[in-house]
Amino acid sequence: MPQPNAEPIVFYFDPMCPYAYQTSVWIRDVRTRIPLDIEWKFFSLEEVNLVAGKRHPWERPWSYGFGQMRVGVLIRRELGNDGVDRWYETIGRAFFYDGTKTHVPETHARVIEAAGFDPSLVERAIADDTTLDQARSEHEDAVTRYGAHGVPTIVFQPAGDAVYGPVVVPAPEGDEAIALWDLVQSMSQFPHL
């Protein structure tokens, strides 16, 4: 739930990007100290790094990161942005810390079920072509509107100033997290940086 007077930002991520995940750990820490309203959106590194002759991720029912994004789209529809936040934290921790192969549909279903989500979300997301369309639309919007070329990409609202990064491994905490936030926020004043 957004806090009163929270600063709105959009956080673009690919669930398979370790850098975006570490930055999400950082931004969640910042959110515990200052009011932020984070809207989670999708960006496909598979598409950005597409090898000539390979099908686009949206031309396949399930692909490494893009398939998972489809589950995230359905979670947003049914549980809102807070659901996407919790889902991303769940699958990111499972993949990056526990080594669980969340990019395998059956494994993804088990991981989210253990976190209290309906495991049928995976099957339903794959069966619903509109989840594919929505994930693709968010990716293309990030590229067109903000010149996004990778993740994490943070967009400060309502101005729409976008910052690529920060790429932080490991994620800073406490006072260091706030110091980095102040730096990143000030970078948004220079849209051509």
Helix content: 40-55%
**What is the architecture at the second tier of CATH?**
3-Layer(aba) Sandwich
Radius of gyration: 16 Å
Structural domain count = 1
Q: Please count the helical segments.
A: 7
Order of helices and strands: EHEHHHHHEEH
Detail the poorly predicted runs.
none
Number of strands: 4
SS-based structural class? alpha+beta
Choose one word for the global shape: globular
Per DSSP, what share of the residues sits in E-state strands of 2 or more residues?
Answer: 5-15%
CATH fold group: Glutaredoxin
CATH homolog superfamily: Glutaredoxin
Please identify the top-level CATH class.
Alpha Beta
N- to C-terminal separation?
32 Å
Looking at this protein, list some descriptive labels.
11% strand; 193 residues; single chain; four-stranded mixed sheet; alpha+beta; 4 strands; globular; 7 helices
Question: Could you characterize the architecture of this molecule?
Answer:
The chain has a 4-stranded mixed β-sheet. The chain is 52% helix and 11% strand. It has one domain (7-187): Glutaredoxin. The two termini are 32 Å apart. The longest helix is centred in the middle third of the chain and has 32 residues, at 66-97. It is an alpha+beta fold and 193 residues long.
